[in-house]
Amino acid sequence: MIMAVLEILVYPDQRLKQKSQPVEVFDESLLHFIADLEETMRAGPGGVGIAAPQVGRFERIIIVDVSCKPKIKNHGRLVMVNPEIADKEGNVVGREGCLSVPDYTGKVARWDRIVVNAVDEFGKPQAYNMEGYEARAVQHEMDHLDGLLFLDRLVSRRGSLFPRTPLRGVEKKADAC
Amino acid sequence: MKNWFMLTLVGKDRPAIVAKISSVLFQENCNLGEASMTRLGGNFTIMLMIQFDGPADILDHVLQPVCDSLKLRYHVDQIDGELHHHLEPNVQISVHGADKAGIVAEVTRVLAAAGLDILNLESDVAGTSENPLYIMNIEGVAEKGVEALNQALKSVDCGEDVEVHLSEIDILRG
Questions:
Q1: Nearest to A104 by CA among B34, B18, B118, B144
Q2: Strands A78-98 and B172-173: what pairing?
Q3: Residue B86 placed within a domain
Q4: Chain A CB within 8 Å of residue B114 CB
Q5: Cα A109 from chain centroid?
Q6: What is the model's pLDDT at position A158?
Q7: Do B54 and B99 fall into the same domain?
Q8: Disulfide: which of A154, B44, B81, B117 matches B141 by Cβ 3.0-4.6 Å?
């Protein structure tokens, strides 16, 4: 398969603010697109995740791979199609940047531990328990599917003495993020 | 080459300082760049990059009436303005404890010697006047590595009632 690095949409491109649709057809063309999307993620400097709408395809597909980071729990390369957060708890502040927002990083609060249900690129159901940096990456990418950027979730530059301390305690109630 | 100036401004805090200053500048076709504006001890302070195609004395003249009316002191300097080249911090140092003179000098002396380039520092005095708390948050780049800073911080001597924590900042880019 010949793979291509796709052009990344850069904010304030308003297409990044639109909601993406679920994937319904799992075929060769989807696999080809996912290969290109992964190639694009790996071409970016330090990119650990990417979402389909970042390259102008408004379908609910994300790729995350934080295995390049030392000492971080991870599931390796993850292709998540139609992902849903089924459970979540804890809340931590961390610093994020985005391939679609050059030259800016900011502090964002995310769920510390999540359970994600998704299907893989072949349509096979998967469930993942994840935490910390990997969970943050998945939430960042899933936001793109709903037209949200980390800029929509910035918290104050002041404060946050302890980045890993839960802010809101345990919350088990599942709802749409 | 764009013509950048830095406005530094301070005065007793009151509503609408930012609105009035920025309106005057907009009317003079100024474009604003990066800024830090915050209330410090009841004073409102501004550090503001201004792009203006004219000399500093014109900018000064433009600002004087509004600053006089709001009882604000200000200063304008021409600067080399550089946008779109943010440095990213890789460490954060949190300091908090009983307020006393010398905390900033001691902590930053040790950190500087161990290679910390400070990008951002914010501090507050909280608590009560009888028991003041000092809280400082520093973000920077560990030029000689994070371990050098961790080792160096062991020698910080601010007393047992002041805690210093270093944590690495691992920026997620997605």
A1: B34
A2: parallel
A3: no
A4: no
A5: 14
A6: 59
A7: no
A8: B117
Taking only the tens of pLDDT, chain A with its 177 residues reads 788 999 999 999 999 999 999 999 999 999 999 999 999 999 988 899 999 999 999 999 999 999 998 888 999 999 999 999 999 999 999 999 999 999 999 999 999 999 999 999 999 999 999 999 999 999 999 999 999 999 999 997 655 544 444 444 444 343 433
Q: Determine, yes or no, domain membership for A67.
A: yes
The answer to whether A45 contacts chain B (CB < 8 Å) is yes
Q: Choose among B84, B85, B172: nearest Cβ to A96.
A: B172
Q: Which run of H or of E encompasses A118?
A: strand A101-119
Q: What is the CATH number of the domain that holds B60?
A: 3.30.70.260
- The domain tally of chain B equals 2
Owner of token pair 């709802």 = A175
Please, what is the average pLDDT of chain B? 96
B12 and B62 share one domain: yes
3-state SS assignment for residue B116: strand
B47 and B104 housed in the same domain: no
